[in-house]
Design the sequence.
């Protein structure tokens, strides 16, 4: 990886320190397990030099903590004092407890005393009023690596607002919990662009927020491009999954409670967009199930197991939350090589078929529209209706995923 990519947008003093560390093999005095450090840690190690004499706004929630678990807004307020002026919160709110899709109200933050403006309420884009007392906006949310998860959509609209209001934008980078290698899934059809599909990437893009910000700024993914800095992590590699970082997992939202939950979200989230199915929402293990009505769970598990998908196992289950529903419970190895979006297509196709098409018949109106938005087009719905074999659906997006994997290369920060 070219060093100029790794040091992208850093203040000269911090860039020089990282370059020296890289060339000598020494380690910076950074917190974190085994020398690993998040963007907020790297910024702190620089003495917050890039924020000197700047009024700072922070996009934040419960996942915004440093390697020791201290909230980033507390770290920044201790260092900057009154120059930390404003907070912004995404879907699920400041504490991550609001249900998916429910509006979040602006509120006073009890930790800092600052107003936490909601970016999932009356507006999803910072307004001029919200930015009035800000020179630079920091983005410090833990993403899960899926296009349909709204935190990156919040970043995209905030970057656009910063450009329109002549504010700078800084990403304090964090790991992609499923790693930086998987690039899987279909493209986003511009017709279906929405807050659950805001940027033109595959369903799994294999990038960090900082890398996506770089690529989007260069490729014009938003209407206006702000001055951008990315503060990279120290010690992260693309082959890492969450458990390799040594960090404690903070649930990113109510249904992503575990560090492996993003894998299951990728595998069953598409299926969960239909009515008349069961993916385990409401249980301690959301997204770990794939079931419907009228399914023989033992036959389903045996047929899926016969596919011998690397790193994935299937176990029959009868739902305790939804009487009459049955199917399979998944067990996914975070380091397995199975294409998770291919798996999502297989599970969706088979649950629809084994339920005699009931999920399609029950899913109409808003449900159907949201299903298209999450998938990125209406292609999957049409294919399911016409009983197109899963392998043909999967083959239809492989070349796109390969082309995106090549196109993203100049914007990657980590080796």
Sequence:
């Amino acid at each position: 990886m070219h060093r100029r990519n790794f040091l992208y947008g850093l203040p000269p003093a911090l860039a020089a320190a990282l370059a020296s560390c890289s060339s000598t093999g020494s380690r910076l005095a950074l917190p974190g397990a085994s020398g690993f450090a998040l963007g907020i840690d790297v910024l702190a190690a620089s003495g917050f030099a890039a924020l000197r004499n700047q009024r700072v706004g922070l996009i934040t929630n419960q996942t915004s903590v440093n390697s020791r678990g201290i909230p980033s807004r507390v770290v920044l307020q201790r260092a900057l004092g009154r120059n930390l002026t404003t907070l912004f919160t995404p879907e699920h709110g400041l504490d991550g407890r609001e249900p998916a899709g429910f509006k979040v109200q602006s509120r006073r933050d009890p930790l800092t005393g600052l107003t936490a403006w909601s970016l999932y309420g009356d507006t999803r884009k910072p307004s001029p009023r919200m930015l009035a007392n800000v020179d630079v906006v920091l983005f410090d949310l833990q993403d899960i690596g899926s296009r349909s998860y709204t935190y990156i959509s919040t970043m995209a609209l905030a970057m656009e607002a910063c450009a329109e209001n002549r504010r700078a934008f800084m990403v304090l980078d964090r790991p992609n919990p499923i790693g930086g290698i998987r690039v899987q899934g279909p493209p986003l059809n511009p017709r279906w662009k929405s807050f659950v599909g805001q940027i033109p990437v595959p369903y799994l893009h294999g990038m960090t927020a900082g890398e996506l910000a770089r690529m989007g700024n260069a490729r014009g993914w938003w209407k206006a491009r702000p001055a951008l800095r990315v503060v990279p992590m120290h010690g992260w590699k693309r082959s890492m999954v969450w458990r390799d970082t040594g960090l404690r997992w903070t649930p990113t939202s109510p249904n992503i409670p575990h560090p492996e939950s993003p894998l299951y979200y990728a595998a069953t989230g598409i299926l969960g967009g239909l009515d008349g199915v069961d993916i385990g929402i409401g249980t301690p293990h959301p997204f770990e199930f794939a079931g419907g009505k009228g399914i023989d769970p033992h036959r389903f598990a045996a047929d899926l197991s016969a596919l011998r998908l690397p790193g994935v196992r299937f176990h029959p289950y009868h739902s305790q939350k939804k009487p009459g529903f049955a199917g399979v419970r998944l067990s996914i190895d975070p380091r397995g090589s199975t294409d998770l979006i291919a798996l999502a297509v297989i599970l969706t196709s088979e649950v629809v078929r084994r339920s005699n098409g009931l999920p399609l018949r029950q899913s109409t109106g808003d449900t159907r529209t949201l299903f298209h938005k999450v998938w990125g087009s209406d292609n999957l719905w049409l294919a399911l209706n016409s009983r197109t074999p899963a392998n043909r659906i999967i083959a239809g997006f492989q070349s796109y995923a390969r082309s995106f994997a090549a196109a993203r290369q100049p914007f990657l920060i980590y080796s």
Q: What stands out?
A: The first helix runs from residue 3 to 6.
